[in-house]
Amino acid sequence: MHSPTRLTAPSRGEEPAALASEIIGGPAGRFAAIGRRGWTYAGAMLSALASVMVALGVIQKGHCVEDGWGSPGALWRACYSDLPVAATGAHGGTPWSVGGPGHNQPVLTAMLTWIVNQFTPSGAGLAAQRVYFALGAVVIVLLVALTTVAISSTMRTTPWLAAHVALSPVLITASLVSFDILGVALATVGMALWARKQPLAAGILLGAAVMSRTYPLVILGAIVLIALRDGARDAVVRLLAGAAGAVAVCFGIAYLMGGDPLDPYRVWWHADPGYGSLSYLLTVAHHPLPAASASIIAVLGWAIAFLLGLYLTGRPAERTQLAPLALTMLVIVLLTGKSMSVQSCLWVLPLIALVGLRWRDHLLWAGAEIVYFVMAWLFIASPSNPAKGMPGAAYSFFVLIRAIAYLGIAWASWESAQDLPRDPAEPYSAPVTDGWALGEPATD
C-alpha cells in the first residue's frame, strides 16, 4: 500500500506544509522524483534546519544571554534556562560532589551536565554562564540532529516525517531550557535499533534513556506489549536484558563515583506537586495536595497507562501500532504526573513523527505549548510583582488548555497512523516504517 501524498511529500499533501514551503520556492512539483535521494538526504537536510530552530531559541533567550539569567528578569522575559545554573558548579570532582548536579538529576543527565561544566571557565560570573550556555546549545543541536536522523532512518519510505522533530516550533522555546533532549535522542535511537531487528542494542539505548529521563519506560513498556502480542518473546528477553544491563552499568558508575543514583527518585517522591501538573491546580486554589498523595496519583497514572496498553494490544479485531500506543500511554503519564515542565513537549516529538501526525494537529498543539510557555513564566514571576504577573485563575485556565491539547494529539494519532505504509506481505502487521514489525525494515 502506497503512502498518502501528505506523508511522502508533505508540501503537496498538507496545507500548512505547502504554505511554509513558499519560503524555499513552493511545494514539490508534479514531476519531482520523490524519495530518489533516500532517507539520508532527508535526515541531513532536516538536521541542518533543526539547527536553525535551536538558533532561533538562542535568539528567543537573547535578553538572558545579554543581561544574565537572574530572577525575576529571566522569568519576565521567558528566557530562563537550567543550563547556566550548572556553570556555578565546582570544577573537578564528580557529578555527585558538593554542588554537583547528581543529587537532583538522573545519572546520565547529571554526568552530561557535569562534563559540560568541566569545559567552562571557573567562577560564577556571567561570562562562565554564557560559555556554558553556548556549549550546551551545541550539544543540544547535535542531539536534536541525532533524533532527526534516527526518525528518518526508521521511516525510510516517509523520511520527511522527521520534520515533526526538526521543524517543530516548540524547539524554539523549550529545547534550551535543559538537557531533556538527551533522553529523547537516546530513546529515539533505541526505537530505530528495534526497527532494525537489534533488540539487545535497542534495550541498551532505551535503558540509557531511562537513566536520562524516566519517561522512556513508557516506550519500553509499549514495545514489550506489542512484541509479546506478536509472539516475539526472544526479542523481548534480549530487549529487557539490554535495558537492565544499561541501568546496572549507570548505577554502578554512580556508586563508584560516590553518588547515590536513587536520590533523585526519593526527592521526587517527597516533592510537592509542581508547575504544569493538574494536581498543582489544587495548590493554586489554596488546597494543596500532600506530596505523598500526588506521588500515589502519579504511580496510578503509570499503572493506568500500562493497563490501557495491555487492553489495546489485546483487542483481537485490531492490530494496534506502537507509535500511537506509546504516545497515548505517555500522555496519560504526563497528565497524571506530579509536574509537567515546559520542556516535556520535547518528549512527544519523536512519537508525533512516528505516527505521521497531520501538521494542522501538530501546530495546534504547539501553539498551546508556546502560549503556556509564556504564561507559566509570568505566573512563576508573579510574587515579585503581582500587578504584572499572571493570576492563578488565568494560569489554571492555560494548564487545562494545554492538557486538552495533549489529549488532542493522542486522539489524532490513531487516525493519522492509519495512513502509514504497511508491509505488503503482512497487511495486518504494524507499519514497517514505524519499526514495530519484526520483519525487515522498508528499503529505499
UniProtKB/TrEMBL annotation:
Residues 423-444 are annotated as: Disordered. The chain crosses the membrane at residues 39-59, 131-153, 165-194, 200-228, 235-257, 291-313, 325-357, 363-381, 393-414. Coiled coil: none annotated. Keywords: Membrane, Transmembrane, Transmembrane helix. This is DUF2029 domain-containing protein. The lineage of its organism: Bacteria, Bacillati, Actinomycetota, Actinomycetes, Micrococcales.
